[in-house]
């Protein structure tokens, strides 16, 4: 019995070693470490993920767009990848990726925590990000997302949550919400916002200098004026922003997720998300704080009921950030 175990371990070690050598010479190897009932599907997912990441590395090396082999990603994902690549080329510097698959809320297979080096479209800067690959039932990749890393979540209060399903669902929602901006996906934003959503944005007002070049002391050189918009008004504004910007790179950080403080069962599906947003585009950039009030009662789709933004320079302490206490919320 012990001999069999030793031989099996040795064979597995040789297999991994051989694949690691291949990764260094030829490309990236992705290995799924947990079992799957359909072994052929597991192999197909590993193969397609490996071929995709290898194509990314080759594109960065040659300075060209990724040449993805047929059957690796869906046509819809090709369109999304084009948008992502215009924002930032990406490469994987880890020759062997070993991760477990998980099932998303929509019951699709997904591999997360894939480390990527992102190359900014408009500068020589690079940064570390993680992506997730989602797979169709035939093993083709049907979504690529830049995801939030574990350390970017400050606090998640999951008290009174029966299982981890809601946690996974909200995290997926936040990833896709950010993804919609970076991919200029107005249709997804339309789905994510409630028809009656309250949306508070900020308009930058820059004071003109006096004739001698100094600013009037009464007001700072730059401030933001709050604007309350309907969903229709906000989406119309975003359409123009998407149209007039060659690229968008929206980063979320310091994410905090909390349940509504009321113990009434009517509020059990109401969550608040506070996060720091870094907005970078070809024409504009700022840093601010978002508060999202999310209604999770619908099983088919979450909805953003409230979305507010505050400039970083308006926040002296964390208590200044909008939250549940800012709004009177009644669930009928």
Describe this structure in words.
The radius of gyration is 23 Å and the shape is globular. The protein has a seven-stranded mixed β-sheet with strand order 8-11-12-13-14-9-10. Strand 4 (101-103) and strand 5 (109-120) form a beta hairpin. It folds into two domains: 22-147, Roll (Nuclear Transport Factor 2, Chain: A), CATH 3.10.450; 151-326, Nuclear Transport Factor 2, Chain: A. Helix 4 (165-182) packs antiparallel against helix 5 (186-192). The protein has helices at residues 2-25, 39-62, 75-87, 165-182, 186-192, 231-244; strands spanning 29-32, 88-91, 96-99, 101-103, 109-120, 126-135, 141-147, 153-156, 193-206, 222-229, 248-259, 270-281, 285-295, 303-311. It has 332 residues and is α+β, with helices and mostly antiparallel strands.
């Amino acid at each position: 019995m012990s001999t069999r175990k030793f031989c099996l371990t040795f064979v597995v070690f040789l297999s991994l070693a051989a694949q690691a050598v291949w990764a260094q010479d030829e490309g990236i190897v992705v290995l799924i470490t947990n079992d799957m009932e359909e072994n052929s599907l597991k192999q197909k997912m590993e193969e397609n993920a490996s071929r995709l990441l290898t194509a990314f590395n080759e594109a960065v090396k040659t300075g060209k767009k990724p040449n993805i082999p047929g059957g690796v990603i869906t046509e819809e994902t090709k369109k999304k990848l084009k948008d992502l690549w215009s924002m930032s080329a990406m490469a994987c510097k880890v020759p062997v990726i070993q991760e477990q698959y998980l099932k998303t809320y929509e019951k699709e297979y997904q591999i997360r925590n894939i480390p990527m080096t992102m190359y900014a479209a408009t500068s020589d800067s690079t940064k570390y990000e993680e992506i997730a690959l989602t797979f169709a039932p035939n093993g083709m990749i049907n979504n690529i997302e830049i995801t939030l890393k574990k350390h970017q979540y400050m606090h998640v209060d999951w008290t009174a949550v029966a299982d981890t399903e809601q946690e996974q669902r909200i995290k997926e929602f936040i990833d896709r919400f950010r993804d919609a901006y970076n991919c200029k996906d107005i249709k997804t934003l339309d789905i994510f916002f409630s028809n009656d959503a309250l949306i508070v944005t900020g308009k930058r007002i820059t004071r003109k200098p006096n004739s001698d070049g100094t600013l009037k002391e009464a007001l700072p050189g730059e401030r933001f004026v709050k604007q309350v918009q309907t969903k229709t008004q906000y989406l119309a504004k975003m359409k123009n922003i998407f149209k007039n910007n060659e690229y968008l790179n929206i980063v979320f950080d310091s994410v905090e997720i909390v349940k509504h403080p009321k113990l009434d069962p009517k509020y059990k599906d109401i969550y608040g998300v506070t996060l720091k947003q870094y907005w970078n585009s070809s024409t504009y950039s700022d840093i601010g704080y978002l508060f999202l009030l999310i209604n999770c009662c619908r099983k088919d789709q979450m909805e953003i009921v409230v979305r507010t933004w505050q400039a970083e320079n308006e926040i002296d302490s964390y208590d200044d950030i909008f939250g549940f206490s800012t709004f009177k919320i009644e669930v009928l």
